[in-house]
Automatic annotation (TrEMBL):
PANTHER family: BASIGIN RELATED, CELL ADHESION MOLECULE DSCAM2-RELATED. This is Down syndrome cell adhesion molecule 1. It comes from Paramuricea clavata (Red gorgonian). Transmembrane segments: none annotated. The keyword Lipid metabolism does not apply.
Length: 352
């Protein structure tokens, strides 16, 4: 009698195990059906869609005199009509496409058809279940650029980034490999989502911001990324040039041109910090291009001209307007230097 009872228990346990296996196989079948481009198969009731991916719901019918509408029902709420905005939702020939699936897009989708007499009927019901896409959670960190050479008083940003939600921190490495955490005022948090192939991917990014670079900013820096029990680090080397008096290279002493053409004079400079450039014609101020990080240029002349960084462009040269001495003057806190060019304009009729 006891043996008979044990046999019944074993039979019940086997039955439960078999039911669990069948349930798991059923779920795998549903998942497999939903992985082929996120389109439902005939008579399919459930569709699993990874976050950020698109999904198609086919409400099309063979009848040509019906109007098909898609509704969404969440939990116990009344169904609401899906709005076709050609951004989130698109519709073509009865096939509705959701371009990017988010967690709140889950629910029961209902296809309703209305014919010319106003008769309405439900043609299809499909439950969409958004899920987190499987990811390779191996921690990787990237620093850009890996090295940087700056002029005195330059500005620069160095980016440390990693995929996923990570804890990032910048350190400066001193003597004896001693690490000092970078001050928060010199950091910019730029965590954001990027779209890659329809998927929205979270990026952690912490930017080291160098402003008005001096020798104190030079050295080795390390970005450390942490997530769970993982830790990765990358390095960057920053060099800052010593302050240096400005100079001018290859500025032509003589320029000969004909009327009506356009010409550009370049004032190639060296100096740290980047020098301010001032242009003169016969000692009359033409324009100023600020030094340092600004590089903004301002014109003070009615002569048809354009100032960019270290050059001046003169348009439609005229003998009466453009003949004369052009001077490029460069200056920073270390000193000042200038070079001049004598420009001679020939009339276009001079050789006729």
């Amino acid at each position: 009698m006891i043996a008979h009872v044990e046999t019944r228990k074993q039979h019940k346990r086997k039955t439960l195990n078999m039911a669990s296996v069948l349930q798991a196989l059923c779920m795998l079948f549903i998942l497999a059906a939903s992985c082929g481009g996120n389109k439902q198969t005939p008579k399919q009731r459930y569709l699993f869609v990874s976050y950020g991916h698109s999904v198609q719901i086919d409400c099309s019918l063979s009848e040509s005199d019906v109007n098909v509408t898609l509704y969404l029902k969440r939990f116990s709420t009344q169904p609401t009509k899906v709005v076709i905005d050609n951004v989130k939702w698109r519709q073509r020939k009865g096939v509705f496409t959701m371009t990017v699936t988010q967690p709140l897009d889950g629910g029961e989708y209902i296809c309703k058809a209305i014919n010319i007499t106003g008769h309405e009927r439900i043609t299809k019901e499909l439950t969409v279940i958004p899920i987190a896409a499987p990811t390779n959670d191996k921690l990787k960190v990237e620093v850009k650029p890996p090295s940087l050479s700056l002029q005195y008083e330059d500005n620069a940003n160095i980016s440390c980034s990693a995929l996923g939600k990570r804890k990032l921190k910048w350190y400066k490495i001193g003597l004896g490999e001693q690490m000092t955490a970078v001050d928060k005022k010199d950091l910019i948090n730029d965590d954001h989502y990027d779209t890659d192939g329809g998927s929205r991917i979270y990026h952690s990014r912490l930017i080291l911001s160098i402003k008005d670079a001096t020798k104190k900013h030079a050295g080795r820096y390390k970005c450390v990324a942490k997530s769970n029990n993982q830790k990765r680090e990358e390095f960057v080397v920053i060099s800052v040039r010593d302050p240096k008096k400005p100079s001018i290279r290859n500025f032509p002493p003589v320029v000969i041109a004909s009327e009506g053409i356009t010409i550009t004079l370049k004032c190639k400079t060296k100096g740290s910090p980047r020098p301010k450039i001032t242009w003169y014609k016969d000692d009359e101020l033409l324009g100023i291009c600020e030094g340092g990080n600004s590089r903004k240029c301002q014109s003070f002349t009615k002569i048809k001209s354009d100032f960019k960084k270290n050059s001046i462009t003169l348009y439609q040269l005229s003998y009466t307007r453009n003949n004369g001495k052009y001077t490029c003057e460069v200056e920073n806190f270390m000193g000042k230097f200038s070079s001049s060019a004598r420009m001679t304009i020939f009339s276009k009729y001079a050789f006729h």
